[in-house]
Amino acid sequence: MNNILVIEDEKQVSEVIKAYLEKEGYNVYCATRGLEGIEIFSRVGNIKLVILDLMLPDIEGEEVCRTLRKISDVYIFMLTAKVTLTDKIVGLDAGADEYITKPCSPRELTARVNALFRRFRSAGDMEIISNDGQLIINPDKRFVKLRGEDIPMTPNEFDILYTIAKHKGSVLNREQLIDQVFGISFDGSDRTIDVHIKNIRKKIEEDSRLAKYIITVTKLGYKFGGES
User: Fewest C-beta in 10 Å: which of 26, 28, 120, 219?
Assistant: First the structure.
């Protein structure tokens, strides 16, 4: 059974989310404060998804997100009333995978959660090794290695990198990446892709200004590099 942690200070909201998700067969933990959520996450140890409100009474949700990112690549949904593009970019930079604005119906949220776990179950593609042999992307075990070292990736970062890599030789634009990684449920800005690409490059490129593995093709999109 998949464990989900809901960090939401409005108890009535978290109870409704919990009821919908448990009906779908998930095991749900709830916290009303950020520090409590971090404690539950550390204690349980097998949380697959965190649904995180940004406006918490003790610490900011962005800080909770950064703390979780230091210890885990768990998938994080940010659920918040902050709706500007700048807010979304800040949230994604903090390590969130999806940014869902309130009000969001529990049925829609549940559908997004189900879609996420279907993605996790759809592995089975072939491992990809860059032409220079230094970058390995394994979709079955969902790991990335660079020069033999494990590179931590959020789920969305992994999916975006793998999608670009498996279309080696082709250029994918933002709309194509959104369609293949997020699907029709995505309701954010195409800038989301740019933020994730920036974060991936920080992890795998020696110099993000001279990208080696994710190449920007001006006015077209992105392609996979790693040539010998």
Answer: 219
The CATH number linked to 219 is 1.10.10.10
Q: Where are the alpha helices (DSSP H) in 173-228?
A: 174-181, 191-204
Which stretch of DSSP H or E encloses residue 18? helix 11-23
For 60-77, write each residue's pLDDT tens digit: 998 999 999 888 888 899
| Number of separate domains in the chain | 2
Q: Which of 76, 104, 121 is the last residue of a domain?
A: 121
Whether the CB-CB separation of 109 and 17 falls below 8 Å is answered with yes
Same domain, 108 and 184: no
pTM (predicted TM-score): 0.62
Q: How sure is the predictor about 120, in pLDDT bands with cuts at 50, 70 and 90?
A: low
The secondary structure of 98-152, three-state, reads EEEECCCCHHHHHHHHHHHHHHHHCCCCCCEECCCCCEEEECCCCEEEECCEECC
Virtual CA dihedral for 103, 193, 151, 114, nearest 10 degrees?
Answer: 40
Are 108 and 37 in a shared domain? yes
Length reported for the chain: 228
Q: Which residues form the domain of 146?
A: 128-224
- Categorize the per-residue pLDDT at 184 as very low, low, confident or very high, splitting at 50, 70 and 90: low
Is the confidence at residue 124, as pLDDT, over 60? no
**Is the pLDDT score of 96 beyond 80?**
yes
Assess contact for 54 and 80: CB atoms under 8 A: yes
